[in-house]
Amino acid sequence: MKNRWYILGAGSIGNLWGCNFSYMGYPVTLVLRNQDKLEKFHAAEQRLKLSEQLYFVDAELSDSPETINQLLVTTKSTDTKAAINSIKHRIAEDAKIIVLQNGMGSQDWISDNFPSAKVAWASTTDGAWLSDDFTVNHAGKGITRIGSPTNIYPWIEQLGCGFLTVELDDDIHATLWRKLAINCSINPLTALFNCQNGELINNPDYLTEMASICREVESVATAVGIELFDGPLIENACQVAELTAKNYSSMLQDIRQNRQTEIENITGYLCRLAEAKGVSVPTNQKYLKKIRELEDNSG
Ligand code: KPL
């Protein structure tokens, strides 16, 4: 019998991985946010659904007594501390933990708070969305890269991939940085200008702002010794905007649904690092402030 995976953060990527672990033969438990969500899970016949396939998993609230030996964290980066703190007492000292999130900052926080755990960080280009709380749609097949910032753990190699594409990454820190750089370039602008990703490259004013953001992000990356892409960041960001032209970025979706965005773990993270390194990032500061204001105004 394989060891159970607990999933903290039953959103689209958490549910996709719940199906994937279940497909690989792991027992799976979703750690749900509240009683209301647990009741919805019971009403949904205690299963996840993906492409008409049902995956029977378990679900519970954070106050269940079982020890957690294997944990996948897929909460929004901004929710990480509160979510982890609610189950901290249940996490085994030597637990295997995978942190699969957008943005940066929360990965370090988990690694620092669980020094004896075997922590891996991951980044994915899989696209998924929920048609209801427990039905996930795998909209874009991508790659999940997984690695550890400190040690090589054999368990990562032995994890398997199921129906997803999973690659071992020996420089996951740089991979997360590349994703951060793209998110800094696209997400705040689309959220503020209320546009699809593709509009950024068709509007000269938006493009000028994007280029300025990119130059600043490159300066911070250089200051912390990260090599981003072969070519300039603006070229890569434009390419992603073109490839995802019809997408509404995750930040715009959060704003439209009055949810907290991940700005603090994207542009906020970049600005904090810039300050610590003495790098000037006025354009990123400007958009950090504007998104914070947008969040405040939407309550
Ligand atoms: O990752 C994304 C996001 O929306 O968060 C991009 C790459 C911008 C695609 O929409």
Automatic annotation (TrEMBL):
Gene3D superfamilies associated with the record: N-(1-d-carboxylethyl)-l-norvaline Dehydrogenase, domain 2, NAD(P)-binding Rossmann-like Domain
Function field: Catalyzes the NADPH-dependent reduction of ketopantoate into pantoic acid.
Organism: Neptuniibacter caesariensis
The protein's name: 2-dehydropantoate 2-reductase
Coiled-coil segments: none
One Pfam entry name: ApbA
Similarity section: Belongs to the ketopantoate reductase family.
SUPFAM superfamilies: 6-phosphogluconate dehydrogenase C-terminal domain-like, NAD(P)-binding Rossmann-fold domains
GO molecular function, one term: NADP binding
Ranges of residues in domain Ketopantoate reductase C-terminal: 171-294
